[in-house]
Amino acid sequence: HHSCKVLVVGGGTGGCSMAAKFADKFKDQVIIVEPNELHYYQPMFTLIGGGIRSFEASKKLMKDTLPKNAKWFQENVMSFEPPQNQVTMSNGDSVQYEIMIIAMGLQLYWEKIPGLIECLKDNMSGVCSIYGSDTVINVFPKIARTKSGTAIFTFPNSPVKCPGAPQKIAYIAEDYFRNQKVRNNVKVVYNTALPVIFGVKKYADALWDVCKRRNITVNVQTNLIEIDPAKEEAVFQKLDGSNETFVEKYSLLHVCPPMGPPDVLKKHPSLTNEMGFLSVDPKTLRHTKYSNIYGIGDCISAPNSKTMAAIAAQGKVLYKNIMDDLAGKPMTMAYNGYSSCPLVTGYRKCILAEFDYNLKPLETFPVNQGREYFFTFILKAYVFPLLYWTLMTRGKWDGPEFFRKYSSMIKKKEI
Ligand code: FAD
Ligand code: UQ1
User: Fold this and answer.
1) pLDDT digits (tens, 9 = 90+) for 260-277
2) What per-residue confidence (pLDDT) applies to 407?
3) How far is the CA of 385 from the centre of ligand 2 (A)?
4) What is the mean pLDDT of the chain?
C-alpha cells in the first residue's frame, strides 16, 4: 500500500512534464507509474525514417528522464478505483492519491490490419512504419532500397498522434527518390482515410500545392484494411459511402497503424467517453465526473490535434488549475486547443502549422508559416529535441505562447 499527494499515470511526454512540475512543488510526494525502461522523443521518429537523425538521439533511460525528487514504480496501472482514490498496479500493490493525473497516451492497434505485423517483422518486405519504437529503424533502409514501382503512404481511420507525420514521411521519401534520380521510376501515393489532407484550411492549401508540384497522388477517404504479403498488394476501402474496395500493388508501403485509447482505460466506462478517451473538460482538463482526476496528452477526450506541442500548452493550464483547486480557489485558466505540427516537406524545408480548437492559425513567428522554410526545418530537427530534453521533460517548457505575443507585437508595429 502506497500513498501520495499527486499520482501520475504514465511517464511519457505528458506524465513526465507534469510529474516534474509537481515534484518541484511537493518534494517526494509525487508517484509516477510507468512500465517502460526507455523514454522516447517520438517526434524524431519521422526524421529517423528519413535517415536525417539517428535512433540513438531519440531515446534516454526512463530513470534519467523522470524527476529525481519523485518516486517511480516501474509497473502498469491495471485498474482504477476512483471512488476510493486508488489504483492497482501490475505487482498487486495499490496507490492512493489526493490528485491523479492520467497521461497514458495512445495504444497502437497493429493487429487491426491483417498481414501488417508479419510484414513489419520481415526485413525483405517493403512494409514499414515510423510509429513504433521497434519498427522505426527499418524505415530508412526500406526507402533507400526502393528504385521502382509504387510507394504508398497511409493514414488510418482513427484518431492518431501527430496527424501530419504520415504525410511528412511521404514528402521526405519523395525528396530522397528525387535526389537518388529514381523519382521517374517510382509512383508516390498518399492514401488517407480522412476527407481532407489536413484539418486547417490554410495549411491544407499549402500541402495540396506541394503534392501537385511534386506529382504526389493523394486519395482521400481511402482506408488501408489488409495487406497480402505474398502478392505485395494492399487492400483499400473507400469511405465515401460506396464502401468499395480495391487492390494496389506496392514496392514500398508505409503504414500509420490505427490507434486509440489504452485498453485499461476502456475497461472503465465511468472514466471515459464513448470512444474510450479519458473524459475531461476541454478547457480546464479536469475529469468530467471526478473532481480530483485530471488528464493530459494523447489519451484525453479534448478535440485538439494530439501532439507534444499541445501537451506543452496543456501542462501550463493543468498545473495552474490544480494549484488553484488545492488552494480552494476557482480554476481560472483555460486551454485553447493550441496544437502545432512541423510538416517537414523535404530534406531542408518545413511548413510549421500552429492552430487552436477552432482550427484557426495561431502562429509564433512574424512570417507566413503557410510557406516552406529552412529555419523551421532546423527548429524541428535540432532545436525542438533540445528543448524537449532540457526543458520540457523537466517541466519548464509551456509552449511558445510568450514568443507569439512578442512577435505579434512586432507584426502590429510593422503595420
Ligand atoms: P506518451 O508519450 O506516448 O506516453 C504514454 C505513457 O503511458 C507511455 O510511456 C506508456 O508506457 C505509459 N502507459 C501506458 N499504459 C500504461 C499503464 N497501464 N500504466 C502506466 N503507464 C502506462 N508531436 C509534436 O508536437 N510534434 C511532432 O513533430 C510530432 N511528431 C511525431 C511523430 C511520430 C512518428 C509520433 C509517433 C509522434 C509524434 N508527435 C509529435 C506526437 C507526440 O510524440 C505525442 O503527442 C506525445 O508524445 C504524447 O504524449 P503522452 O504523454 O500523451 O503519451
Ligand atoms: C513545441 O512546443 C513542441 O514541444 C516541444 C513540439 O514538439 C516536438 C513541436 O513540434 C512544436 C512545433 C512546438 C511549438 C514550438 C514553437 C517554438 C513553435
Assistant:
1) 999 999 999 999 999 999
2) 75
3) 9
4) 97
| Ordered domains of the chain (ranges, CATH) | 2-107+262-326 (3.50.50.60), 108-259 (3.50.50.60), 339-414 (no CATH)
Name the grid cell of 129.
Answer: 512504419
ipTM over 0.90: yes
Pick the atom of ligand 2 nearest to 364's CA: 18
Residue 130 Cβ < 6 Å to ligand 1: yes
* Cα–Cα distance measured from residue 91 to residue 76, given in angstroms and rounded to the nearest whole number: 8
In our burial notation (b when 16+ CB lie closer than 10 A, e otherwise), range 80-109 reads bebeebbbbbeeeeebbbebbbbbbbbbbe
Q: Is the CB of 97 under 6 A from ligand 2?
A: no
Q: Is residue 34 pLDDT above 60, yes or no?
A: yes
Most ligand 2 atoms within 8 A of CB, residue of 340, 373, 379 to mutate: 340
Give 296-309 pLDDT, tens digit per residue: 999 999 999 999 99
